[in-house]
Design a protein that fits this description.
It is built from 3 helices and 4 strands, in the order ααββαββ. The protein is mostly helical. The protein has 2 domains: about 100 residues, Non-ribosomal Peptide Synthetase Peptidyl Carrier Protein, Chain A (Orthogonal Bundle); about 30 residues, no CATH class. The longest helix has about 35 residues.
Length: about 160
């Protein structure tokens, strides 16, 4: 039981996954810093708000409050700015992952894995009934007409021969 667990843990893909999670967590911290420290001030200069998290929509609640209770400032507040920060972070991470990992890997695999050669079909067309029959057949299984094999792997024309 422990031997199987040890072989599972020491397999390459489990260790690679652990490294990927750790690097991903560090990358998220860098991306969040980029969004909050560099992109937000630039957008804030354009929009006029000091920061994205400052963008809040307030929904007025229509339920009665207890007598003497103070209204909660966060009740009914929709944090639009925090959502925008999360969207920008996600788009940055997705862009880096696609252009930094997925696209180069696709190009690398395409370079090492050449396109498969197109094999000639294993069938030919019967000139009498235009049915697909095996290339090695000497007689059509549908109309029983004798069939000559096509020269050099070419398909015969799909026009039926004239009957006499």
């Amino acid at each position: 039981m422990l031997k199987g667990f040890r072989s599972f843990i020491l397999r390459g893909n489990v260790i690679d996954l652990a490294v990927a999670v750790i690097i991903g967590a560090a990358f998220v911290a860098i991306t969040n810093s980029l969004v909050t420290d560099m992109i937000n001030p630039f957008v804030a200069a354009l929009v006029g708000k000091p920061d994205f998290p400052a963008i809040v929509w307030h929904v007025h609640l229509f339920h009665p409050m207890a007598p003497g209770a103070k209204p909660d400032a966060t009740a009914g507040a929709i944090q639009v700015g925090r959502f925008l920060n999360a969207v920008i972070s996600f788009l940055l991470i997705a862009t880096v992952v696609y252009f930094g990992i997925v696209l180069p890997m696709q190009k690398l695999l395409a370079r090492f894995d050449p396109p498969a050669a197109v094999d000639s079909p294993a069938t030919q067309v019967c000139p009498q009934c235009i049915s697909d029959i095996p290339k090695a057949a000497t007689r059509c299984r549908f109309c029983a007409q004798p069939v000559l094999p096509p020269p050099s792997g070419e398909q015969p024309p799909a026009i039926p021969a004239a009957c006499g």
